[in-house]
Amino acid sequence: TANVYLKRNEDDKALLELKAGYEKFPDAAMLISQLSQLYMKKKNVPAAIALCEKRLENNPEEAFSWNLLGGIYFVTKAYDKAETHFEKAIEISPEWQKPYENLAQLYLFQGKKESAVAKLESAIKQNEKNKEAWMLLGMIHKRDKDYQAAATVFKQAFDAIPSLWSAANDY
Predict the structure, then answer these.
(1) Residue 27 DSSP code
(2) Which residue, 88, 57, 58, is CA-closest to 73?
(3) Residue 114, exposed/middle/buried by CB under 10 A (0-12, 13-18, 19+)?
(4) Of 68, 94, 134, 162, which has the fewest beta carbons less than 10 angstroms from its beta carbon?
(5) d(CA 6, CA 151)
(6) For position 8, what pLDDT does the model report?
(7) DSSP secondary-structure letter at 107?
(8) In contact, 5 and 35? CB cutoff 8 Å
(9) How far is Cα 153 from Cα 141, in angstroms, rounded to an integer?
């Protein structure tokens, strides 16, 4: 119980420090990310959501916060809200690869393989150097034992990104 008490106190101290830092530097994306993660760890989902929503009120065109809030909704199984927020992040910042990956993961989790594949292909068209999208797309085909499609994806990935040794290996 002493370890639990110490850990709880450490989390409380970290929460206070992160709040103070965020108040001082409200534009720091890393601070909002860390603060929301700590809220989630402490099972204070409403605080994590409120934090992101407040930030979006002040800056509705910030893709980072849309994506972050989408992640919170994904973890809490509010899948429709997660999808909406990931889509908004993509709309605001179509060159940023993370929301595409998150949305594809959401689709896969829900058993919507075709939607996941389409989103990953869209991400690759947007940025052919998107390593994660290439690898996830190849893994989907590999998982489904469509080895020809997987091989094609991995070869295309390696051709697009010669330093992507994992694609060469899987090819």
Answers:
(1) T
(2) 88
(3) exposed
(4) 162
(5) 51
(6) 58
(7) H
(8) no
(9) 9
- The per-residue pLDDT for 1 is 39
The closest of 87, 82, 54 to 69, measured between CA atoms, is 82
Specify the amino acid at residue 12: D
Is the separation of the CB atoms in 28 and 18 below 8 Å? no
Residue-wise pLDDT tens digits, 56-109: 998 999 999 999 999 999 999 999 999 999 999 999 998 888 998 899 999 999
- pLDDT single digits (tens) 102-158: 999 999 999 999 999 998 998 899 889 988 889 999 999 998 999 999 999 999 999
**Would you state the pLDDT for residue 151?**
95
**Side chain identity at residue 127, one-letter code:** N
CB 137 within 8 A of CB 160: no
- How many other CB atoms are found less than 10 A from the CB of residue 6? 10
Length of the chain: 171
Q: Which of 24, 51, 23, 28 is nearest to 38 (CA)?
A: 51
Q: Which residue type occupies 99? A: P
For the chain, strand residue ranges (E) read none
Q: Rounded to an integer, what distance in angstroms lies between the CA atom of residue 97 and that of residue 81?
A: 19
